[in-house]
Amino acid sequence: MAILSWFLNAITVLFRCLLWCFRLVFFMGPPQEQINHSTASSSSSFHSAPPSSSESCKHDVFLSFRGADTRNTIVDHLYSALVQQGVYTYKDDQTLPRGETIGPSLLKAIEESQIAVIVFSENYADSSWCLQELAHIMRCKDERGLIVMPIFYHIDPSELRKQKGKYGKALAKHKSHSKNVESWRKALVDAGNLSGDVFNGPETIFIKQIVDTISNRLPVAISSDDEDLIGIKARLQDLKSMMEMEPDGVLIVGIWGFGGGGKTTLASSLYDEISCDFDGSCFLKDVREESRKHGLPRLQKEILSLVLKLKTEEVIGDVDRLIKSRFRLKKVLMVLDDVDHLDQLKELAGSNAWFGKGSRIVITTRDNHLLTAHKVGVVYNISLLNDDEAIHLFSKHAFLEHEPVEDYAMLSKEVFSYAGGLPLALKVLGSFLCDKDMSEWMSALARLKEIPHTDIVEKLKISYDGLNPVEKELFLDIACFFRWQRKDFVMEILDACGFHPIIGVKVLTEKALITVSEEGRFDMHDLIQEMGHHIVRGENPKNPELHSRVWQLEDVAKMDAMKENDRIKALHVWFMLDEDIRPSSLPQVIGNMKKLRWFYWYEYPETSFSREFQPTELCYLSLEDSLVEQLWEGYKI
In its keyword annotation, does this UniProt entry include Transmembrane (predicted)? Predict the structure, then answer.
């Protein structure tokens, strides 16, 4: 009986295999119910996040094409060009793991892509696989907002719409074998009605144009980790509704709120989602600081470069005039982040008349008066996190979970009540308390209770107080001098100063006190930097000789040449002092700084240093564009 049972099972398996092969031969695909099941199950998991969301997308681009026509020509060249641009592209023969069934894998890859590029060629419709892909792509376009970009390679778009010639004959052949022909016909018509690229001219130029278009339509990832986006989705939806006002007009929208309240994160998320809908776009970060360091003409030039897609050196002429004239016929999205002075708005986005129909200018600021003075009619007052959002964000950093550990639940409620729903405070305090025991939590709470609710800087300082001495030195150096500087360069300097900074910098990152940008530069939140400045000035804000670090021109001017400045470890000054505030004995002031290990002065105004200048601990000296003719006599060891 066992042998008979085994024999019957073997016959059943063999019959199923023959049925599968029969379907593959005559229908060019697996059983329809399997495809439908695969599609349905994948579809249900993506309703909450469209393909443009980084949460659901594994691929930037999905390539749909007829291999026999284009695999070794335009598709191969396009794939290579996209990969070279850093665009993660799904191409079945390059990306599909060996042994996987092609149909379901391709359908899943479509759902996990942000853009579908369909290369329609003469024999595209001959393949039922291609038509199944096409139907699924168009379905994802309608249901999930998948971006579809058709390329018409040696065919006219009308062939898809009219379905005559080779496309008509191919569909006629499929009609006797498949129940899906009507859905394929509709998908072809819909795709033929889309705006696409018709191949003509040199292939290299054609491919470059396509790659540029794809790069511009992919979201620019400015926002950082997922935890930074907690509480953002509802606020983003409200802001997007405001952005839809006056669709044919030029709209300036202000985002106003506390420092550390999530203004930049909200603006970044908005930019990621909608920038591809504009002719040109730019996100200008840290306008307050960048304008102070480099001046507004530099920022105007950067805007022109980004919006017009030019290299900075290609922006030639009067930038003040260019920025008022070059965007009038363009639909532009511009984000001006952290604006603190009316002149910045006047010079960078002075009038609606500068921009074309449908343009949107987004301004983030802590100062609502600026928005009123600039006559910004639409202002979004960003709200602080509610209790559930605050618990979630705090727990992500304190426990690496979505909610507090049971034993710490009550303590957690006390901590985030003191953070007042401010995302930055929740993130910093949570990171500080991570891995701390109960007694350390109690100590931190006692400190928080002594600080006024409004004094966020003092609350953030609790995290600084938990650092060891070397970590504190590293933090203050980065806060005062090295924000936006390249990490590899800074690490060399810090290492030369004897800090051996690798572990310390890792700790600062884990404590959410510093970050490293995608370009490899140190960064931190404005309030964190403000805390660092506050710590350095300490109890002697009016006596810079008693500070460990000096970075303000005015502080140098206040120094007494007769006093020893042996507490100053680092001096970093950007510009030459004005004559009316420059001390008459500047060389003597510098000469008194015996403990300098870092000395940077752009356009140092004197020709020499005094003989008393003997910086035996100096590790770095830069006097770019200065008047110095001789540093000192003899050698320094």
Answer: yes
Rounded to the nearest 5°, which phi and psi values hold at 148?
A: -115, 125
The pLDDT value given to residue 23: 41
Point out the least confidently predicted range of 165-179, 473-487, 539-553, 566-580: 566-580
Domain spans of the chain, in order of start: 24-217, 226-381, 387-465, 469-531, 538-622
Query: What tokens were used for 13?
Result: 């398996």
Range name among 24-28, 165-169, 229-233, 563-567 with the lowest pLDDT average: 24-28
Tell me the angle at which helices 456-465 and 423-433 cross, rounded to the nearest 10 degrees.
20
- pLDDT at position 201 is 77
Answer whether 24-217 and 226-381 agree in fold: yes
* Partner residues linked to 97 by β-bridges: none
Q: 510 or 240, which is more confident? A: 240
Residues 512 and 520: their CA atoms lie apart, in Å, by 16
Cβ-proximal residues to 579 (8 Å cutoff; 6+ apart), any chain = none
Task: Report the candidate in 357, 297, 360 with the shortest Cα–Cα distance to residue 328.
Answer: 357
Query: In angstroms, what CA-CA distances link 482 with 478, 489, 521, 533?
Result: 4, 10, 9, 13
Catalytic residue IDs? 133
Over residues 290-305, the mean pLDDT reads 89
CA 60 to chain CA centroid, Å, is 15
CB-based contacts of 372, cutoff 8 Å, min separation 6: none
Q: Which two tokens stand for residue 545?
A: 């000789």
Nearest to 262 by CA among 376, 338, 333: 338
pTM: 0.54
Q: In this structure, what token pair is assigned to residue 353?
A: 């008349």
DSSP 262-300: SHHHHHHHHHHHHGGGSSEEEEE--HHHHHHHH-HHHHH
More confident residue, 175 or 285: 285
CATH superfamily of 24-217: Toll/interleukin-1 receptor homology (TIR) domain (3.40.50.10140)
Which are the contacts of 310, defined by CB distance < 8 A and separation ≥ 6? 304
d(CA 473, CA 120): 61
pLDDT in tens, 179-223: 788 888 899 999 999 888 898 878 888 898 898 888 877 765 444
**Position with higher pLDDT, 297 vs 106:** 297
- Which fold does the domain 226-381 belong to in CATH? Rossmann fold (3.40.50)
Taking the C-alpha atoms of residue 404 and residue 395, their distance in angstroms, rounded to an integer, is 5
Pairing relationship of beta strands 515-516 and 522-523 according to DSSP bridges:
antiparallel
For range 500-524, the mean pLDDT: 90
